[in-house]
Amino acid sequence: MKKKTAMFIAGVLALCLLAGCAKDEGKANAPDTPAQPETRVITDMLGREVEIPAEIKTVVCTGNNALRMLTYLEGTHLLAGIEEADLAFETSTKRDYAYVNHEMFSTLPVIGKGGGSAYTAYPEEILKVMPDVILSCYVQEAAEQLQSETGIPVVSIRSTTANFIDENWCDALKLTAEVIGAQARCDALLGYIDACKADLKERASAVAETDKPAVYTGAVTYSGDHGFAGTYANFGPLMAIDANNVADKTGEKAGFEVDLEQVLVWDPDIIFLDPGSMYLVNEEYASNPDFFHALTAVQNGEIYAMPAFNNYATNITYCLLDAYYAGTVLYPSQFADIDLKTKGGEIMTEFLGRDYYDEMQADGLTYGKLTLGE
User: What is the predicted pLDDT for the residue at 224?
Assistant: First the structure.
């Protein structure tokens, strides 16, 4: 009996050994599983080829608009540090993404001063948090300097858009999404933008060119505050609704100071002014009321507030909201169904995940009629 048991155990062991060998032989003969690449190469907005990790887990953003792009793509969970310039918006709504995310931003280490497209980074602080990639809107020289000093890949997501939502801005958003792996969110956001732009165009197209009032937008914010003469050709919100912007006749491409005598010649039907710069306009009104009272729009009470949409590049939220507001003023029949509070809340929620329209209004970024001198 013992002999039979021993023979049985030996047989089982032999079968196990044979099975193991067969299994090992199968492994040896099976094709090797391709190793996943550890890095990838992307071409950034400056045309530079940059090698970055295949999977991005942490980032920092430098330069105007970089963090806005990341925020619109719902990528703030990747942030390892923050620019100092984005921390001053606990109560101010002037910078949309910074206001909404102030509480979270305030917990992050500071990795740069911020404030433009020149070099303002703190490389030592960036090295302390060691992000996988730096998303930057610096000019090329500054971007290359930062990469050289840190050894961390710097990807330019710099857009040349200074006004509305053009192809260049969309390309920058797509590139940001490619880097962080947010293609689905990018597609959804661009789809929403396209729908808004199409809606604005369709409504405006119902108005004949000869029926469009002449419009002047003054006290416009670009590179700081300006008085009444600060105006803007190719002004985004007015472009979106094909408005008759008198400043477009000058051949200028962006913000500039116009001769006040020229405004008298244009004599616009409707005037939009940035409420944030009304302190300058009211000073001018007090010293030269005759100029203002000579304008038809002033005589008829057709002066309206339009909050600035540029702050550390373009707040796309406010730019779209300004376009809808301008539509309600210039083409009231075509925009009669637009409730600005509702539309504003929709836009803010789409881009930033939260409706803070009432807070924006309370902060002085208001819409409605203006009275000079008040």
Answer: 86
Exposure on the CB side of residue 288, measured as CA atoms within 13 A: 11
Residue from 370, 369, 352 nearest 93 by CA: 352
- pLDDT at position 115 is 87
Residue 370 burial (CB count, 10 A): 21
Token readout for 270 is 């409707």
What is the per-residue pLDDT for 80? 98
- Contacts of residue 74, Cβ cutoff 8 Å, sequence gap at least 6: 182, 185, 353
Tokens of 309: 């949409």
User: How far apart, in whole angstroms, are the C-alpha atoms of residue 8 and residue 5?
Assistant: 5
H-helix or E-strand containing 141? helix 140-150
Mean pLDDT in order along the chain per 10 residues (374 residues)? 41 42 43 73 98 98 97 98 96 97 98 94 98 97 98 96 82 98 98 97 97 97 92 95 96 93 97 96 97 97 95 94 98 98 98 97 96 92
CA–CA dist 6, 150 (Å, integer)? 69
Q: Which pLDDT does position 222 carry in this prediction?
A: 84
Written as six digits, the tokens of 349 are 């929620």
Token pair belonging to 28: 């040896």
Virtual torsion, Cα 226, 231, 234, 240, nearest 10 deg: 80
Q: Where are the beta strands (DSSP E) in the chain?
A: 39-43, 49-53, 59-62, 82-83, 110-112, 133-136, 154-156, 214-218, 230-232, 244-245, 255-257, 270-273, 303-305, 368-369
Backbone angles phi, psi at 165, to 5 degrees: -100, 90
Alpha-carbon torsion (139, 145, 149, 152), positive or negative: positive
Tokens 């057709």 belong to residue: 302
pTM of the model: 0.89
Strands 255-257 and 270-273 turn out to be unpaired
Burial class (CB in 10 A: 0-12, 13-18, 19+), 175: buried
Tokens describing residue 117: 């497209």
